[in-house]
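Ticket reopened. Same input as before:
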Amino acid sequence: MKKFIFKILLFILLAGILASIPATLVVAIDPYFHYHAPLAGLSYQINNERYQNDGIVKHFDYDSIITGSSMCENFMSSEFDTLFTANSIKVCFSGASYREINECLETAIGTHPNIKYVLRVLDYSWLVKDKDAMHYHTRPDYLYDNTVLNDGEYLFNDDVIKECLSVLWSTRKGNAMTTFDEYSNWNDQYTYGKQAVLATYTREPSTHETVLLSDEEREMIRGNIRQNVTALAADYPGITFYLFFPPYSICYWDEMNQAGKVSWQIEAEKIAIEELLNYDNIKLFSFNSNHDLICDLNNYKDQAHYREEINSMILTWIKEGKFEITKENYNKYLDGMDAFFSTYDYDAIHE
Amino acid sequence: MLFNSWQFALFLPIVFALYWLLPSKFRWILLLVASCYFYMSWDAKYIILILFTTAVSYFCARWMGKTEKPKRKKILLLSTLIACLGVLFVFKYFNFFSASITGLLSSLAIPVSSLTLKLVLPLGISFYTFKTLSYVIDVYRGKISAEPHFGYYATYVSFFPELLAGPIDRADLLTQIKAPHPFDYEKATYGLKQMAWGFFKKMVVADTLAIYVDTAFNSVGSYKGFALLLASVFYAIQIYCDFSGYSDIAIGTAKLFGIDLMENFKNPYFSASIKEFWSRWHISLSTWFRDYVYIPLGGNRCSTWRKRVNLMVTFLTSGLWHGANWTFLMWGGIHGLAQVVENRFTKNKKRSGDTQFSFKWLLRVCVVFLFCTFAWIFFRADSIGDAFYVISNMFSGITSPIAYFTTGSADLSISTFVFLKLALILSLLVIYDYLSLKRDVIRQISNQPTFLRWSLYLLIFLVVLLLRSHNKIEFIYSQF
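Engineering reply: fixed in the latest deploy. New output:
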């Protein structure tokens, strides 16, 4: 028995020494920035949102943050920095719910109390959803939580070790580290225009009905906005939150119209606006009144996703205060939305 | 708790230390308490079912032992069968049969509302039920005497290494639990090595392949061609590694306590016939069905047709044991039919020239593997329809081989890195299983020089540590 116990302990010792080799490599290089910011001189490739964003938010140096869904992925941090005299990071979560984005912001503000600006999209697709809804089915929780007990998943992970080796290889080849302009940017990967949009959109037959928001949905919107958007604005009045409803294409409104949900969508936006405008540090924008933009399908690759130039224009408009929604003008804005989207000739899109 | 969890990593050393510190006569108490704790860590209330099954089988066996009257013995046996199988039926099969009967009546235009029970399938219920039934039947047959000590018997039924997914040991395990035995260094170290190999098969091979299998089989309609073929082959390997990995961990764990469980897998995918496959796959279950279903039905000692019927009944029942779904029945039926056909065409032939490792043998092994892979499609698919979809679409596009392979690989997100990883771990698996056809690989490693031995141990540790899948996947057979 003594011999058995001795050999077990010896094995544990040797195994521990052996295990420390990959662990040391991972801690040192830290491709997901779980422990520290990128090491100077190494060429990190930032290309994995749900694995790297949390680390970026915790360990990078910045005073502003661009975040949201894929609607924000084509923003150029450098343009934002120039316009707003800031030092921003861009951390987007493709398909994310309001809650997921809010959690990211909570982490950012918690680790960087000097944040000046937040630029964030408010997707229509996640507006009328439960406040605790999340998009992902699995998430690397070991990166997001504050316990080291499950860090074994990170330290002894062949995918992470592969990333470490990729960093070293990329450095050896002389590649530059991914910039935030490049990070998540998909602009050059797609084709834009009417043909591309209509290829991804199947028009359903009209229901010939008008769907209205239920009381449950109204409460859902308020709960979602309060927990996942305005709570931070209330807690941090010194931060300016630039929020915007994304300019989905006219095809999106065609789909709403076919389902009888134009009024449903507009009322949902009204409820959100009324919640958001209670805070002086929230600057709210919507570009749906820019009909030239949303009706020109050359700006889009599908119903919702616009090209990079639109993101640049959005930054400029925000800086200039164009298309801002205020207490004074929101009713006129919503009336305009109703008048336009309720009477638009959607059939012409498909001719 | 799962074998591959931190809870088990803490639980096992504590139980091991206490076991060998305790005097022999108290060790069964520790094993019983530990086994109850092990089971209750999943869901405490279901310990009642094990207690019920244990108590019913214990008392009926005792009464059987005390009576000489064959009729009374028979009544006691039937009572045990009804009670224990009744519990199994309620929790596992009631909803299936209810839905099937409702469906049948509906198709005959007889409207009936389906009655369903909202019950969770208790872990290990099929395994411990069959364990107790084998004990009671052996007592009935006079093969063994009824165990007078309830504690020993309860420990035998609930012995934690094999509680959730076997092996389904016979009553000689009881003898080992009762008999005092000193610490056996060779057995314990062998057990640790067997556990290590089991963890490799489960955590590295099975759980890695599960990602691709689940991707395809959870949404079969989204895939065609090579993706379906690859997922099917992967599943054949996954289920083998998952289940034999569990068995290795269970057997290795028992060895730490000086207890030998029955061997459950013997390189089944190196079988040259279906019959041989079933002598190597889930041996504890196949021998159970042989001894308690096939032979009582008449086995081989009846007419050819009756023998074929016996085979089909045995395999259909085996299929149903695995799960309450027509897919499992189909799987069992396919294997039964294959054995019937194989027996028909090999009946009068003496197998000669097929020496192991000859080309002809290798060809047979490949054919048997492909057949098993085909049958596993029904085992894995959510429905018969899904299974037929997989079979009818897995060769779609094969006339353009390059596109067939590249599209299928891309569909399952198999990058070059993933391909290399899979090639490495599957190579290790094949090499080990091939070598173990003729030798005890673990014992052979144990006879190597210290440096080489320890290098191998540490290499396996490193492989499991770094290449394990990070998706926590339940052992497949724990759902049966």
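The radius of gyration of chain B is 23 Å. Residues 70-107 of chain B form the longest helix (38 residues). Please confirm and we'll close it.
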